[in-house]
Amino acid sequence: MNPSRAPRLSSCVLCKQRKIKCDPTTRPCAQCIKAQVECIEGTRITTRTRRRPQQELLERLARCEELLKQQQQGTSSTNSPMTQSPQPRGTDESAPEPVSVEEPQTRLKPKSAGGKMVNDKGKVQFMDSQAWVNIHEEIHAIKELVEADEPDNSSAFGSEPSANSDVLFSDPFPNRSIEDLRPEPIHIFKLWQVFVARVNPIVKVVHVPTVQSQVMAASTDFNSIPLRSQALLFAIFAMAVLSLTKDEALEILGSSRQDYLRRLHVGTKIALAKLDFLNNYDMVVLQTLLLYFFSLENTYNSHATWILGGLIVRLAQKMGYHRDGETLGLTPYETEMRRRIWWQIVLQDCKNALVSGLSHSMLLKNWDTKMPQNVNDADLFPGSSEPIYPREGPTEMGFCLYSYHLAKFLTDAESLYESDSPNPWDHDELLLLPLTQRNKQLVERLENSLNELEERYIDAYAGNIHVFSLALRPILVAKTREMTIPMRQQPEWGTEIFNKKDNLFKTVLIAAEDLRNIYEVSIQTGFVWFVKHHFRLDVLAFLVAQLCQRPIGILTDRGWRFVETVYSYEDQLFDLTQRPFAQQAKLVVRAWDVRQRVHAQAGTVLETPEFVRRLQEALGTTGSRAVKSAGSSHQAEETEVEAEADQSLESAFDVLGSDWQALPDITYSQGQMGPDFYGNQFGPFY
Questions:
Q1: How far is CA 329 from the centre of its chain?
Q2: How far is CA 218 from CA 186, 210, 212, 255, in A?
């Protein structure tokens, strides 16, 4: 400061309070004289020198550019495809080791268990790249600097409605209110009770005590609960309606099951679209998508179902569900719920991949989420920091623990298909003996784990879900074990199995059998909806087409018993107004006609089953054609039968449509079953 310069005078206190001009050179000032008050000179507030916001912003931007360059250089130097060939997953560059069947869980361990949960305006995101964590923090600081200098609602980082969710969930009825689609209050309570009794024991992705409070509020005023909770309730009610029979839906809801289900699907879709779920996702959104896509599985074809399931996988990974909550320092409640949700995602992704024709789920193994514990919902308290300990004895988690161990088995079994050959089945059977042994070891491990679960956590007196679980376990293990037997060791080798195509027929037959017992148990326990939901028309069409080419034999008799079982429980197959069901009916009638004529040639008279007679009447046919006279040429008869078989195969293609490609290639080698059906054996109920 220049010493010759006079200090700047300050306005008096009165003038400062009134915010009027003051003449500090005269004391008292004119305003104080006029007001007849003492003129007191005000004190000046010294302001510290601050950097210009633009300067700090530029420094932040420069820091971001530096971090981005470091990230780019690090990526190109370590993972450049021009300088380094990719290493096989799960191997070490210096000392590669084969995948051990004894320790399959090591394949689930990530390369790095690090990571950080980043909170961005209330939306939690997971990042395991420290460079990107730093970049995110710098960008967040830049946003705060920019928004501090901008008026409200004018920020360049403002949250305008995003069109991202319109890609999948555009609002089909923009002028329609969610209020018009919600169930009636009395239906809300009934559907919630159905969900808790039939769906929740099988798909435990929600915490019943927490959601029940939302149900109570929604029954009074549906709009009083948050939009994300509305979406979840729509998905929950859709699953409840899915578990009802047609008669139950008419009795409880006063509407057809299909119409009410479609109404709830539209409500879920509108709620998710309004929520902009791709930008506002959390646990509730993930629960909604899981239940919503589960209820839609029979609406899309198998390939679209698996593709759409990838959306759930990516959202879960973005929220860090592939990392165990204990590692991330989350509360015991959130940790346990995330485990349940993640393992349900793994199970559904495995199932959808296998049904789509893939040999495994292709889910990356860079996750370490532990398996959920054997606890009831009542043992979990949101916000509690008290650790959770598993119970000994039966709980609500009995069936789900079965399911999660099955998912683990399917992910471990992926190692069976890893080979240097593009087609690992193009080898001699002797070369596949080690593979066969590993198959058997995996099945034994699955059986041991399920037996241990059954002894510790399953009790037939603990509820219907435990009875259902006990009925599934022996069938699951027995069929899995039978399907690991190589073709040449099959009992039918040399009599009914002569080549790969014959073995494939038995493989599919094994996968489809024993549904009678499962149907009966599921009806008694209230879970028949779960079995019917996983019924696959393409498998039935393939079997019937093969039965047309195989009119006689033990395997053929087993196949017709299975077809009769399916038609006795799947009433919708008699609805010939549906084109796929009508084509399937024609295929069945044609296959039975071939079987009946071949038996007539041998002097055997077959009684037409009731389900075939119903199909014949519905199609307007008169049953089998008259048997050729004794003077007819035997060669001509064989030619006609072969022509019928060819027509039946063409009909099978019509029934399957584009999904025919989902069936496995019948040209795999003479080893045990092909990989596509190795996992698809669980198709009837998984």
A1: 26
A2: 11, 13, 10, 21
Q: How many CA atoms lie within 13 A of 374 on its CB side?
A: 17
SS3 120: strand
User: Rounded to an integer, what distance in angstroms lies between the CA atom of residue 360 and that of residue 368?
Assistant: 19
Count of Cβ atoms closer than 10 Å to residue 216 Cβ = 13
Measured N-to-C along each axis, helices 554-569 and 610-619 cross at an angle, to the nearest 10 degrees, of 70
Contacts of 302 (CB under 8 A, 6+ apart): 352, 355, 356, 357, 538, 659, 662
Identify the residue with better confidence: 663 or 220: 220
Q: Torsions phi, psi of 124, nearest 5?
A: -85, 130
Give the separation between CA 78 and CA 70, rounded to whole angstroms. 12
Q: What distance in Å separates the CA atoms of residue 576 and residue 582, rounded to the nearest whole number? A: 4
Determine how many CB atoms are found less than 10 A away from the CB of residue 477. Answer: 17
Q: How confident is the model at residue 364 (pLDDT cuts 50, 70, 90)?
A: confident
Determine the angle formed by the axes of helices 464-482 and 398-412, rounding to 10 degrees: 20
User: What per-residue confidence (pLDDT) applies to 647?
Assistant: 45
Dihedral, 96, 101, 103, 105 alpha carbons, nearest 10: 100
Mean pLDDT of 600-621: 89
Contact between residue 136 and residue 118 where contact means Cβ atoms under 8 Å apart:
yes
Most confident of 369-378, 489-498, 573-582: 369-378
- Largest Cα span, the chain: 140
Instruction: Give the separation between CA 681 and CA 478, rounded to whole angstroms.
Output: 11
Instruction: State which of 19-28, 175-184, 264-273, 641-650 shows the largest mean pLDDT.
Output: 264-273
- Angstrom distance (rounded) from CA 117 to CA 124: 6
CB atoms within 10 A of CB 107: 15
**Sign of the CA dihedral 93, 98, 102, 105?**
positive
Q: Which residues contact 270 (CB under 8 A, 6 or more apart)?
A: 171, 172, 173, 176, 178, 181
Q: Choose between 570 and 225: higher pLDDT.
A: 225
Query: 181-197 b/e with 16+ CB inside 10 Å = b?
Result: bbbeeebbebbbebbbb
Rounded Cα gap, residues 418 and 425, in angstroms: 11
- The whole-model pTM stands at 0.69
Question: What's the pLDDT tens digit per position in 153-189?
Answer: 444 444 444 444 444 665 556 667 788 899 999 999 9
Q: Which tokens belong to 619?
A: 């199609």
Q: Is 416:438 a contact under the CB 8 Å cutoff? A: yes
**For residue 123, how many C-alpha atoms fall within 13 Å in the half-sphere facing its CB?**
16
Strand partners for 125 = 118
Between residues 503 and 370, the one the model is more confident about:
370
Q: Domain coordinates of the chain in residue numbers?
A: 1-44, 53-69+106-158, 161-296, 429-625+634-680
Cα torsion 97, 102, 108, 114: sign: negative
**666 pLDDT tier (thresholds 50, 70, 90):** very low
Mean pLDDT over 297-310 rounds to 81
Q: Is 96 helix (H, G, I), strand (E, B) or coil?
A: coil
Q: Residue 255 is encoded by which pair of tokens?
A: 């509407």
How much is the pLDDT for 288? 97
How far apart (Å, rounded) are the C-alpha atoms in residues 354 and 363? 12
Cα distance between residue 66 and residue 87, in whole Å: 30
